[in-house]
Write a structure and sequence with these properties.
With 397 residues, the protein is of the alpha/beta class. The protein has two domains: 20-51 and 90-203, Rossmann fold, CATH 3.40.50.1100; 57-87 and 209-396, 3-Layer(aba) Sandwich (Rossmann fold). It has helices at residues 25-39, 42-56, 66-72, 90-103, 117-129, 139-144, 146-154, 169-182, 200-208, 210-223, 239-245, 274-277, 315-322, 333-347, 353-359, 361-364, 385-396; strands spanning 11-12, 15-16, 62-64, 75-80, 108-113, 132-138, 158-162, 187-189, 230-235, 255-263, 279-283, 286-290, 326-332, 372-377. The protein has a six-stranded mixed β-sheet with strand order 3-4-14-9-10-13, with helices on both faces. It is globular, with a radius of gyration of 19 Å. The termini are far apart.
């Protein structure tokens, strides 16, 4: 892990760091100085893992998808993060961060959300811990993820629709940062992915690393070995992927395949494939690859997936792609939807559209019959049913 570990200034190679307004400097410094000490404290670890077991329902199963395996001529295991409480991997992170916020004396929680899964997970832990919760969500996403908005409100959160820009995840994050600047003393910002200023990318990756920690034990039990041949996950900000690969980064024989959202195609002008199309820049407090114009203006991304519709990428993933540790594939809307309907039809599992991008990799790569693949099924598709139904109806016309 040393080679791929964040350095003391928060960088993975050229990517990362903390580029923040002065008003947030103390907050971020305090967090940077506290997070490792708290996360490694035995009493924190006990409380965190007890909640993961008894509240979230971990460990999540590692499921051999037999019919999917037959179709692609290899062994495909699904790491079933969709079976967690709240329906995705996001809860692994929000439980850890709210325990940290409470230990730091914070009383008010803010968050950003795209697909709504992080928003629901944050609202859930705020209800559990009796803390005020404000979730910023782009108006476009509020409309396409109505069910998750209703869940957040039922859980007691205030959902703030954001009407600037493209009204999606980037804009929600902008508003959350503005709120934090206005309320630095009592507010803790639970960032949902491996994004933002250091220490967030490292902290979120550590909290999500329970995914790969469990996978090693489960694979040993099922295959007699801890390491698969391939790991597959989708990336937007990249938290489920970071968790899936964390304990395998120093295993060179384990190939990493990451799927980013190509939208309507890499050359269509409507894409969110940041690693394929982005250039180095700074967004939301971190230096990373960003989709931007020649004069450095951030370009609006597009994806059918609200959770992958982001113009940047987590700095860890930008670094892994640059040094060749991860292979990044661009998966279009159509490829993801086809993969979603396929999993539903042959395994009886309806995936989130984000996770369907990871499934889309199976049709793009050729695997050997003895290859063992672990694919992170990061979330379930309840929130995307309106989109799936609309597509099905259009297909019938």
């Amino acid at each position: 892990m040393e080679k791929f570990k964040v350095d003391s200034k928060g960088f993975y190679g050229d990517f990362g760091g903390a580029y923040i307004p002065e008003i947030l400097y103390d907050n971020v410094e305090n967090l940077k100085n506290a997070y490792l000490e708290v996360l490694e404290d035995p009493s924190f670890q006990k409380e965190y893992h007890d909640l993961l077991r008894d509240y979230v329902g971990r460990p999540s199963p590692l499921y051999l998808a037999k019919r999917l395996s037959e179709k692609y001529g290899c062994k495909v295991y699904l790491k079933r993060e969709d079976l967690n409480h709240t329906g995705a991997h996001k809860i692994n992170n929000t439980i850890g961060q709210i325990l940290l916020a409470r230990r730091m004396g914070k009383t008010r929680i803010i968050a950003e959300t795209g697909a709504g899964q992080h928003g629901v997970a944050t609202a859930t832990v705020c209800a559990l811990m009796n803390m005020e919760c404000i979730v910023y969500m782009g108006k476009t996403d509020v409309e396409r993820q109505k069910l998750n908005v209703q869940k957040m409100e039922m859980l007691g959160a205030t959902v703030v629709p954001v009407t600037s820009g493209n009204m999606t995840l980037k804009d929600a994050t902008n508003e959350a940062i503005r709120d934090w600047c206005c309320n630095p003393s009592d507010t803790y910002y639970i960032i949902g992915s491996t994004l933002g200023p250091h220490p967030y990318p490292d902290m979120v990756a550590r909290l999500q690393s329970v995914i790969s920690e469990e996978t090693r034990k489960q694979l040993l039990e099922k295959e007699g070995r801890e390491t698969p041949d391939y790991l597959i996950a989708c990336i937007g900000g990249g938290s489920n992927a970071a968790g899936m690969i964390y304990h395998y980064l120093d295993e060179p024989d384990v190939k990493i395949l990451l799927a980013e959202a190509a939208g309507k195609g890499l050359d269509s002008g409507e894409s969110a494939a940041t690693i394929h199309l982005g250039r180095l820049g700074i967004i939301h407090g971190t230096k990373t690859l960003i989709m931007q114009s020649e004069d450095g203006q951030i370009e609006e991304p597009y994806s059918i997936s609200a959770g992958l519709d982001y113009p940047g990428i987590g700095p860890l993933h930008a670094y892994l792609a640059e040094v060749g540790r991860a292979e990044v594939l661009a998966v279009t809307d159509d490829e993801a939807i086809t993969a979603a309907f396929e999993l539903t039809a042959i395994e009886g599992i309806i995936p989130a559209i984000e996770s369907a991008h990871a499934l889309g990799v199976l049709a793009q790569k050729k695997f050997k019959s003895d290859d063992v693949i672990v694919l992170c099924l990061s979330g379930r598709g309840d929130k995307d049913m309106e989109t799936y139904v609309r597509i099905r109806e259009n297909q019938r016309l």
